[in-house]
Design a protein that fits this description.
This protein is an alpha/beta fold. It is built from 8 helices and 13 strands.
C-alpha cells in the first residue's frame, strides 16, 4: 500500500504559512521527500517515524530554503543518507551537501515502490514532482497549495509560462491526489489545477488592461490590480506582475523600454 507519512518541518512563517510538510515513504528503502529546515523537533519526529529503520535518501523537490536547507542537519543525524535533486548550481552551492543529480523521467526506489521524477518548472527552475503510477499520486512540492496560489518569483528563477506548461503536464497525468509541501492533501487535483490556470489567465488580462490604461511599471500595475493589498504582500505581488509581463513580452503583447512597459 502506498501511504506516505507526513512529517512536519516546524518552520511556520510569512512565506511558509503553517510550515512545510515533508513526506516519508517507509518500507524496504526509506525515502524522505524534501528536507525542511533542520529544526530539532522535525529531526526527532523523523527519527520516530522511521521506527529504527535507516533513512536511505532524501529527494528534494527544489532548492528553496524551506525545502533544501535542512539537508546538512539530516545528513548529520542520519549517517549514510543520500541527497538528490535536479541541479540548480547557483542555489545548490548554498547548502553544504553532496547532491546527486536527478533528471526528468528518472525512476527511483522509495519505500516499497518506485517514483518517477517529473520536471515541473515555474515556481523554481529545478522544481520536480514525484509520481507514483500505481495510485496516480503526485508528491507535488510547491506546484500547488490548496486554498491559495503559488508564488512565481520572477526575480529568482520563476517563469510563468513554464509554470502554466507544468500545470498542463500534470493535468495530462490525470492524478487522483496531490501531496503538497504546504497545506492539506489535494483530493480534487483537476479542479484545483484548472482553477490555477483560469486565475493566471484572468490576472494576465488584468495586467494588460492596466498597461492599456497607462500603468507603465510593475509598481503602478500592482497599485491598479491589487487595490488595498497589505504592504507586506506588495513584493510578492510585484514579482507576480513582473512574471506576467515577461510572459506577455514573450507572447508579443507588451514590450519594455527601460523600466517602463507598454502594449505592442
Amino acid at each position: 500500500m502506498f501511504q506516505p507519512v507526513p512529517v512536519h518541518a516546524y518552520n511556520p512563517g510569512f512565506m511558509t504559512g503553517s510550515g512545510n510538510v515533508t513526506w516519508l515513504l517507509r518500507g524496504r528503502v526509506p525515502v524522505l521527500i524534501d528536507a525542511g529546515t533542520g529544526e530539532p523537533r522535525f529531526l526527532a519526529d523523523l527519527e520516530h517515524s522511521l521506527g529504527g529503520a535507516r533513512l536511505a535518501s532524501v529527494l528534494v523537490t527544489h532548492g528553496h530554503v524551506d525545502h533544501a536547507s535542512g539537508a546538512p542537519a539530516i545528513a548529520a543525524r542520519f549517517a549514510g543518507s543520500r541527497f538528490a535533486k535536479m541541479p540548480w548550481p547557483s542555489r545548490d552551492e548554498r547548502y553544504a551537501i553532496g547532491w546527486e543529480p536527478l533528471a526528468d523521467g528518472d525512476v527511483v526506489e522509495a519505500g516499497d515502490a518506485t517514483l518517477t521524477a517529473i520536471h515541473t518548472p515555474g515556481h523554481a527552475p529545478d522544481h520536480l514532482c514525484f509520481w507514483h503510477d500505481g495510485t496516480r499520486t503526485l508528491l507535488c512540492g510547491d506546484l500547488a497549495v490548496k486554498g491559495t496560489t503559488v508564488v512565481i518569483p520572477a526575480g529568482s528563477g520563476g517563469d510563468l509560462r513554464a509554470y502554466l506548461q507544468s500545470l498542463e503536464r500534470v493535468l495530462a497525468l490525470q492524478p487522483t491526489r496531490l501531496l503538497p509541501a504546504h497545506g492539506p492533501v489535494i483530493e480534487d487535483p483537476e479542479k484545483v489545477l484548472r482553477q490555477y490556470i483560469a486565475h493566471r489567465l484572468e490576472r494576465e488580462e488584468q495586467v494588460l488592461a492596466s498597461v492599456a490604461a497607462g500603468a507603465a511599471t510593475p509598481d503602478a500595475i500592482v497599485a491598479s490590480v491589487y487595490r488595498g493589498l497589505a504592504a507586506a504582500l506588495l513584493p510578492m505581488a510585484r514579482d507576480s506582475v513582473t512574471a506576467h509581463l515577461v510572459k506577455l513580452e514573450g507572447d508579443g503583447r507588451v514590450r519594455r523600454d527601460g523600466e517602463r512597459w507598454e502594449l505592442t
